[in-house]
């Protein structure tokens, strides 16, 4: 029955046009956010601030190495599925998934060693935190988003992963052993992924031999290099503050990790809108992407970004204090800079990235991210070295500003080239 649910032939005009599609995107976002939020709240209340800082550093390093596991599927994997013939969608997914499984072990070993050596304390915890992020990169989300089936994603991955998180946290609360909690969560998530992929494989007509050929693997890997490069540079932009802090001001790492986590949860509120637009774009329901994006989508993202950023500014310090059991106290001045940075990210950078990705302008995305790092990375390091937490906040604001400017330039260039 599970196999029939996974790859049952779907009607694009049916599920995608369904008014409940946005609801399923919202519910997916809610549960995929709620699990990690509960985990952070639980771990911070039981473990020390130093242990949380080491875990956050390990997760940042794991986020970097997970790029070699995800192979850019988080960039344009759903587009690739949507642009494939329905009979070949499972084949595309399974061949890339096979390579992802093969790269999981070396990527995990690499990230574990780097996190273990890079962390100034709780080295083992940092290493295990990096492995947990690598394992989470194995996901079927891009398959179901590409097929326009958020309901199936909710039932087959989002809800099961949420329940796995709750189970591992219950064990952690009883044993006070965070290592055991991470181990249980990683193993059960990997088991869920293997079961889902196996079910997809058994329902498809693909032979095992199609995975063995070196030509197949090399061609698929080469095909993903550009998307992986984009994800890699984007990841560097995302984790650079915590990596710089670990070198320039190590004592601030736990404070930054908590504030950054709260900010990310606020930004996720915007994801149902983003996922809905990605879904419409992938399934061809948006006939004129340029006019739709540059008017309605920008307006919606600006309004949503303003509301979310204002909410972060007003409630951020209280949330950080509550999450850390009053171990970390931040003022509204710091969150003013963080909120401005979030507004730029949500209202301009995110929709601009979506616009370029929907037009498969991967070169434009890569150039924008590369130029952003080139200009902002030295500034971020200098400000962090001079002003610690406040400097890191201001540096991230400058980073997001540069990124938005370069993305908008690429949009303008792509529109001009199209008219030519």
Walk me through the structure.
The protein has 420 residues and is mainly α. It has one domain. 84% of the residues lie in helices and 0% in strands. The radius of gyration is 21 Å and the shape is globular.
Attribute tags:
mainly alpha; globular; disordered N terminus
The assigned structural class equals: mainly alpha
**Number of helical segments?**
17
The domain tally reads 1
Q: Could you describe the largest sheet, including whether it forms a barrel?
A: none
Radius of gyration: 21 Å
How large a portion of the residues is in β-strands, by DSSP E? under 5%
Order of helices and strands: HHHHHHHHHHHHHHHHH
Terminal Cα separation, in Å? Answer: 52 Å
Q: How many beta-strand runs?
A: 0
What's the rounded overall pLDDT mean?
Answer: 76
Shape: globular
Low-pLDDT parts are: 1-5, 8-18, 214-219
Helix content: over 70%
């Amino acid at each position: 029955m599970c196999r029939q649910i996974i790859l049952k032939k779907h009607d694009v005009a049916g599920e995608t046009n369904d008014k409940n599609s946005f609801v399923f995107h919202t519910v997916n976002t809610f549960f995929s956010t709620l699990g990690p939020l509960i985990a952070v709240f639980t771990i911070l209340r039981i473990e020390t601030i130093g242990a949380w800082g080491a875990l956050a550093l390990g997760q940042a390093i794991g986020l970097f190495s997970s790029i070699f596991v995800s192979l850019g599927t988080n960039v344009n994997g759903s587009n690739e599925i949507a642009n494939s013939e329905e009979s070949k969608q499972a084949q595309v997914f399974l061949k890339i998934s096979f390579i992802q499984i093969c790269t999981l072990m070396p990527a995990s070993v690499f990230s574990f060693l780097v996190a273990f050596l890079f962390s100034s304390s709780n080295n083992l915890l940092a290493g295990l935190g990096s492995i947990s992020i690598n394992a989470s990169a194995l996901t079927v989300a891009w398959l179901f988003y590409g097929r326009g089936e958020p309901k199936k994603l909710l039932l087959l991955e989002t809800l099961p992963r949420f329940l796995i998180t709750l189970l591992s946290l219950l064990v952690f609360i009883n044993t006070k052993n965070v290592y055991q909690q991470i181990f249980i969560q990683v193993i059960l998530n990997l088991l869920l992924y293997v079961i889902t992929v196996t079910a997809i494989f058994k329902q498809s007509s693909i032979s095992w031999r199609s995975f063995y050929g070196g030509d197949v693997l090399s061609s698929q890997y080469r095909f993903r290099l550009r998307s992986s490069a984009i994800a890699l540079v984007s990841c560097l932009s995302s984790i650079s503050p915590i990596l710089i802090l670990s070198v320039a001001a190590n004592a601030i790492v736990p404070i930054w990790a908590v504030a950054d986590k709260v900010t990310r949860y606020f930004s996720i509120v915007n994801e149902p809108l983003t996922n809905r637009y990605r879904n419409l774009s992938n399934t061809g329901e948006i006939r004129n992407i340029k006019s739709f994006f540059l008017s309605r989508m920008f307006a919606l993202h600006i309004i949503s970004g303003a509301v979310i950023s204002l909410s972060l500014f007003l409630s951020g310090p209280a949330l950080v204090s509550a999450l850390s059991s009053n171990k970390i106290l931040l003022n509204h001045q710091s969150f003013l800079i963080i909120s401005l940075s979030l507004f730029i990210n949500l209202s301009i950078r995110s929709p601009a990235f979506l616009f370029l990705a929907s037009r498969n302008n991967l070169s434009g995305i890569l150039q924008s991210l590369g130029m952003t790092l080139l200009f902002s990375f030295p500034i971020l390091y200098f400000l962090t070295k001079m002003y610690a937490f406040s400097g890191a906040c201001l540096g991230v604001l400058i980073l997001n500003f540069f990124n938005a400017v370069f993305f908008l330039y690429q949009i303008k260039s792509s529109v001009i080239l199209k008219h030519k």
